[in-house]
Design a protein that fits this description.
single chain; mainly alpha; 2 domains; two-stranded antiparallel sheet; 10 helices; 39% helix; binds zinc ion
Length: 231
Amino acid sequence: MTHKSKENIGSRRGKAYGKVKGQYNQPTVRKRIEALFLDNIGKVMTRDMIIKAATDPTTGRQPENWHQRLSELRTDSGYTILSWRDDVSLAVEEYLMPTRERRPIAAKRVKPTKECWDAVLGQAKHACEWDEDGQLCGLKEGDTDPVGGGKVKLTPDHKSPHSMKPDTDRADPNQWRALCGRHQVMKKNYWDNQTGKLNITAILQAATEKDKKAALDLLLKYFGYSLAQTG
Ligand SMILES: [Zn+2]
């Protein structure tokens, strides 16, 4: 795969940039970002536009956690918001909502008891337990997330998404792990809770470069190409 082929796909689609219409007065960062995207369906929104719209209308404070709120619009509100990870025509820090349609939202999740959660945090040494190729994320509560920005908050993640005994699990520390906000969102993206189907795209986005390459190799072979021919 060369850069050239990537640019070709991008230029074929063309880009239409959206507009930030004055000040957004919605009460929360998430609602202001939601309003911005709904005003600009099918248009490219840049990081700067999003921060401008998300800025507190009263205090003028720019939110440091805007990226987390944007992720929640995907996972909690069911919106589709594309980034460069989903669409080669988008550059880094460009985002696009193709439709105002929303996916159905999953039911509220079961949480561990206070004692159970304290035990999980103790075992985790108060650090994110997301495992990527044997390497743990390791971000601690209150750290600044170097990728997503904002302060790290650890929350409980049920290890098996389709547990048959959610009530007894609430007190069992072995059923839970601690994850930072960014990895919580990544994990949530893996499953469509409504259909019980895997979200292959989300999994590939989160995969390591090594795993992405293996997947690409598999797909190229499947469609009759090989990496050697295209590189
Ligand atoms: Zn993490």
